[in-house]
Design brief:
By secondary structure, the chain is mainly α. The chain has one domain (about 20-160, about 225-325). The protein is about 75% helix and about 5% strand. The protein is built from 11 helices and 4 strands. It has helices spanning about 15-35, 45-70, 70-100, 105-140, 140-160, 170-180, 210-235, 240-250, 255-260, 270-290, 300-330, and strands at about 10, 15, 190-195, 205. The strands form 2 sheets. Strands 1-2 form a two-stranded antiparallel ribbon. A two-stranded antiparallel ribbon has the order 3-4. A hairpin with a 2-residue loop joins strand 1 (about 10) and strand 2.
């Protein structure tokens, strides 16, 4: 059997590396749904933290493997992208919590929505990254548009602060309720259910709130992808690094959600830190051009990105702990 095709380049990376990555992702998804959560039980915070640590460890291990196979610069670009995407995923947790609250999704079925949402993310990100890679390869100036967009997004995030999105006023919800039959009550883990139509007296298919929540989670990811995809392309234009760092950061979102949903208020300064990161990533494209550099060194990008996000997390934990202590003393 001729296996030479495995060593052929596809989008700048050997085919065997793409196949290895896909095999790991499929194995993780099968293990997650088929072994860990096949009984729709609730995920406790302790289990969530353990699983999250495992996913983060796998993501970092894959980065080490990329470093070993492709070199130091691709390895650092992967780690930078992984850190940025993981932080954006943390911001996404807050929106997902609002969606689950709005549709009153029982905790034991939230993992089902997140799992199928992740499958949609894998496909959607592949399409968006493929389009982005094609644009960048054909029109180099597109990177400057991405950079400008990131700068504007960072400014907007700083300006808007912690303003909550209004889930109930989303036009997609109105569209689904007008075009389809929607039941207001949950029916276990089902996305669809057959019920008697009071008008016709016939059994018809209804959409459940669980499916509505899934649709909103997918829409939320598309919105976040508009930020994250330009962000990673501003770090590197290698499709393999872009896609793998995205997917490994998102794969652990399901497990991370259950650990962070109840304590997301502790990360008050994470969003401002993320806004500064986007300003830095977008700004370094223009700064490198002004200084006559091909690009900012990968080690510098990784170091600055990690430092900003770590500072945001640490300062958030310190400030919220002080606030909690003050409230406790006032109530004593």
């Amino acid at each position: 059997m001729d296996l030479s095709f495995l060593f052929a380049d596809w989008l700048g990376t050997p085919v065997w590396m793409w196949l290895g990555f896909i095999a790991v992702v499929i194995a993780l998804l099968v293990f997650d749904l088929g072994v860990l959560h096949r009984d729709h039980r609730e995920i406790e915070a302790r289990e969530s933290l353990v699983l999250s640590a495992g996913y983060i460890g796998l993501g970092l291990a894959f980065g080490g493997w990329v470093w070993w196979q492709l070199g130091a610069e691709p390895g650092m670009n992967y780690l930078t992208g992984f850190v940025v995407e993981k932080t954006l995923a943390l911001d996404n947790v807050f929106v997902i919590a609002l969606i689950f609250s709005f549709f009153a999704v029982p905790r034991k079925y939230q993992h089902r929505v997140l799992f199928w949402g992740i499958l949609g993310v894998i496909v959607l990100r592949a399409i968006m990254i493929g389009l982005g890679a094609a644009l960048v390869s054909q029109f180099g100036w597109v990177l400057y548009i991405f950079a400008a967009f990131l700068i504007l997004t960072g400014i907007k995030m700083l300006w808007m602060g912690d303003k909550e999105p209004e889930i109930g006023n989303n036009p997609v919800i109105g569209f689904l309720r007008q075009r389809f039959k929607v039941t207001d009550e949950h029916h276990g883990p089902n996305f669809f259910v057959r019920k008697l139509d009071p008008q016709t007296g016939k059994m018809v298919r209804y959409i459940t709130p669980l499916f509505m929540a899934l649709v909103m989670v997918e829409i939320a990811d598309v919105i976040f992808a508009v930020d994250s995809v330009p962000a990673i392309f501003a770090i590197t234009t290698d499709p393999f690094i872009v896609y793998t760092s995205n997917i490994f950061a998102i794969l652990g979102l399901r497990a991370l959600y259950f650990a962070l949903a109840a304590m997301i208020h502790r990360f008050t300064y994470l969003k401002p830190a993320l806004a500064v990161v986007l300003l830095f990533i977008g700004g370094k494209i223009f700064v490198a051009d002004l200084l006559g550099l091909e690009k900012v060194p990968a080690a510098l990008s990784l170091g600055v990105t990690f430092a900003i996000i770590a500072a945001g997390i640490i300062w958030s934990l310190i400030k919220t702990r002080r606030s909690a202590a003050s409230v406790k003393e006032a109530g004593a």
